[in-house]
Amino acid sequence: MKIDVLTLFPEMFDGVFGHSILKKAAEYKAVEYNVLNFRDYADNKHKTVDDYPYGGGAGMVLKPQPIFDAVDHLRGEGETKPRVILLCPQGERYSQKKAEELAKLDHLIFVCGHYEGYDERIREHVATDEISIGDFVLTGGELGAMVVIDSIVRLLPGVLGNKESHMKDSFSTGFLEHPHYTRPADFRGIEVPNVLMSGNHRLIEEWRAKESLRRTYLRRPDLLEEAELTKEQKKWLEEIKKEYK
Questions:
Q1: Residue % of the chain over a pLDDT of 90
Q2: If both were cysteines, with which of 6, 24, 121, 182 could 38 make a disulfide (CB 3.0 to 4.6 Å apart)?
Q3: DSSP character at residue 157
Q4: The pTM of the whole model exceeds 0.70
Q5: Which residue ranges of the chain lie beneath pLDDT 50?
Q6: Nearest-angstrom CA–CA distance, 127 and 120
Q7: How far from the centroid of its chain's Cα atoms is residue 133's Cα?
Q8: Residue 168, exposed/middle/buried by CB under 10 A (0-12, 13-18, 19+)?
Q9: Which of 129, 150, 169, 177 is an active site residue?
Q10: Catalytic residue among 89, 100, 177, 179, which?
């Protein structure tokens, strides 16, 4: 996968792309990062990329020309056009499902906004996707882009080592992930559930499935509203509800 990032602050990405899983993914050749300052594409001598909004109002708005030209350059002449993703509060609320969709693609371009927003022509004629990482506003799109890129890159083949590592993540199954434990079995009198040390894989998987359902019910009951539960899951859910009455 190739990931291009258009930003006014390229140095913000040095630490993120240069450490941990994102660094290893690049070394493994699963992904190639390219971070560009779209100010370099401005066609005026002062390299300004923003201007006052027509009609008045507070703040400045990103001009279309630098971003149009930067994206045109990055798209190249290939037959397959990359997805161009704007990070903005008005965008689609980001989800694991969206991460899985984007992880299947070969080329992504992220545009990180600043100031009051984008000239609307950027949204209408450049962007293919608009993404928001939550119902709050940041000073710029860089942090949002980092979050989205991290969630995508970890899904690429070979990046996590074990291809099944992400398959039972929270949200990948539609539910929150079950609890995890490691050694020691007894820490300060707090013991690991016996079933996890039983060696009975069927019972362990059943426990994990039920605890995943329990955690979802207690922390994110909204996820259960559209979930298609099996007969067994429905039975477990009724048992769980009775425990908390």
A1: 88
A2: 6
A3: T
A4: yes
A5: none
A6: 10
A7: 7
A8: middle
A9: 169
A10: 89
pLDDT at 58: 84
Which member of 50, 64, 142, 154 is catalytic? Answer: 154
pLDDT at 164: 52
Does the annotation mark 206 as catalytic?
no
Catalytic residue among 100, 116, 150, 206: 116
pLDDT for residue 245: 87
The reply to whether 89 belongs to the active site is: yes
CA distance 122 to 112: 12
Closest to 145 (Cα-Cα) out of 13, 23, 24, 36: 13
For every residue of 67-127, DSSP letters joined together read HHHHHHHHHTT-SSPPEEEEEEEEEEEP-HHHHHHHTT-SEEEEEE--TTEE-HHHHHHT-
List C-alpha distances in Å: 191 to 171, 188, 213, 219: 27, 8, 21, 23
Residue-wise pLDDT for 31-58, tens only, equals 999 999 999 999 999 999 999 999 998 8
